[in-house]
Amino acid sequence: MSTTAITPLTTDEAETLVAAARTAAEAAGVTVSVTVLDAGGHLLAFRRDDRAVLISGETSTRKAYTALQLNAPTADLVDLVKPDGPFHSLPTALDQPLLFIAGGLPLHRDGRLIGAIGVGGGTPEQDHGFAQAAIKELS
């Protein structure tokens, strides 16, 4: 049985993700917070624009954490936690900082989960787009 080691997400890559998300947000005239977590959920990079709403720091981190824990874009999870959704009790059942709002994306390398990015401060759709732009810049 052979296993192939996957290179973990680096601090340099995390900084590239933050910069790319902020560049995309600036181009749209939006101030944001960006959080990048490694595969263990540890903070690798964080940046809140000076004028970004204060809560965006928390929302970006929770979006990244949610995307990491569920290995799915948070945009894909929103309907699952609505009152008629199959996981409607998940946000309150677990004592975890989950946030089911678009803007969090898992990060993969060679098909393996290596971390997550979360963006907060714009509309959910904008945050999702800024996170996508960051991942595109990294790949």
Please explain how this structure is put together.
- 37% of the residues lie in helices and 19% in strands.
- The protein has 139 residues and is of the alpha+beta class.
- Strand 1 (33-38) and strand 2 form a beta hairpin.
Beta content comes to 15-25%
Strand order of the largest sheet: 2-1-4-3
Number of strands: 4
Q: What form results from the Cα inertia axes?
A: globular
Following the backbone from N to C, one meets helices and strands in this order, namely HEEHHEEH
> Major sheet, described briefly?
4 strands, antiparallel
Rg from alpha-carbon coordinates: 15 Å
Summarize the SSE layout with pairings:
Layout: H1 11-27, E1 33-38, E2 43-48, H2 55-70, H3 90-93, E3 104-109, E4 112-120, H4 124-138
Antiparallel strand pairs: 1-2, 1-4, 3-4
Helix pairs in contact: 1-4
Kindly list the characteristics that best describe this protein.
139 residues; alpha+beta; 4 helices
Concise description?
With 139 residues, the protein is an alpha+beta fold. 37% of the residues lie in helices and 19% in strands. Helix 1 (11-27) crosses helix 4.
